[in-house]
Amino acid sequence: MQRIRMSLPYYRASGWEPVVLTLMDEHQDGVREPELMATVPSDVRVIRIPAIPVRAARWWGLGNTGLRMLPYLLWHGSKLLRAEKFDLVFFSNTQFITFPLGRLWRRWFDVPYVIDIQDPWRTDYYERIDSRQPPGGWKYQFARLQAWLLEGWTYHQVSAVMSVSPSYLDDLRARYPAFARVPAEVIRFGGSREDLVQAEAQKLAQPLFDKAQGEIHFLYTGASGPVMPHSLTVLFDGLRLYREKNPDRAARFRFHFIGTSYVASGQGVPSVLPIAEHAGVADLVTEIPHRIGHLEALRLQQAADVLMLPGSSDLAYSPSKIYPYFLTGRPILGVVFRQSVMEDLMDELNCATLIRFTMAEPKDPAYAALAKFFDQALAGFPQGTLPVRAEALFAQRYHAPELTQRQCALFDRAVATF
User: Fold this and answer.
1) CA 389, 393, 396: angle at the middle one, nearest 5?
2) Which of 29, 56, 103, 173 lies 20 to 30 A from 194 at CA?
3) What is the per-residue pLDDT across 139-166, written as a single tens digit (0 to 9) for each?
4) What is the pTM of this model?
5) CATH code for the domain of 75
6) How far is it, in rounded angstroms, from Cα 334 to Cα 305?
7) Which helix (H) or strand (E) holds 186?
8) Closest to 333 (Cα-Cα) out of 319, 346, 317
9) In the chain, helix, strand, coil percent, each to 5?
């Protein structure tokens, strides 16, 4: 949703008229943030469709949004394509089950389709050594079977693909040799300065950070899945070692992890606190599992002293939150795996102090680098201690207007080669 939302004000400048087909509010199963509609041009045509109601679907064990809306999306999308002339269908979501509709619509209505790969559809992550058990039980196995059956069939006739990570494209080329002929681009999510303006305008409540006692507040906003425990363990073990040597100094630290699951307010099971408890630093850590809105997250990021980016053991992971983090101008602490996409991206933007590690090597250098960063934070980050951000590079490559132009250039290629 975020890529499309940030791009809607800029598609027309590149010659594309957007029409959005999306789910009705009452059938959404997640955090709703009507304030974000202020960032969408009022004259953009948005068509909202129903889905199987959440309560009824869950009775049958079908909580997945894509499955709930699939028959309605097929019907309403077909009706729209039959009634009007469209040049392109663009899928930009993580509901993979909706992607095969592109091939059906291409066959029925002679229209090309483009897919935005925000996460891998097929992945062997949970079969790798040192990976945790996959979540979801039989649902994970069903999703895996679905991907195995449908991914190749869907990509066989795709007209173009964009991806947030080069590794996702490499995986597709390795699985499907014909994919090498498909126009493909790495186009990351980027950030929107207008979102920061809108967040300020909302005047959201900000009760988390009480700095009356001189605390230093570290913040992470977003999901914390089974791919992050390694970096969190490095962070919390380093914090424990720092506190053993400097108990009074460490007492000023507060670590906040907000919105670590995808559930609604009042729900969710902590995933970060158990790791902090194992490391012996849970008294310095606060976790709020339920999802928060995008604008609320931006306001919290602006108020924090330090923003945290724990890396994923999936080396292909490309964190979209790095772009709003960058725009806030706050100090950033990244705990990253060496040779990961995340490490490369943060090096390119030169926007964070990076704590680099691998599973096979001793963590002492990482702990030492963390201790140095903690000292700098307590000193208020004296001049020269933080990296000089690549502001010009960000404006050129990762700001919403420029990224929308790149999307449209890919759309043009898809239509031209159809």
Assistant:
1) 140
2) 29
3) 667 777 888 899 999 999 999 999 998 9
4) 0.82
5) 3.40.50.2000
6) 14
7) strand 184-186
8) 346
9) 45, 15, 40
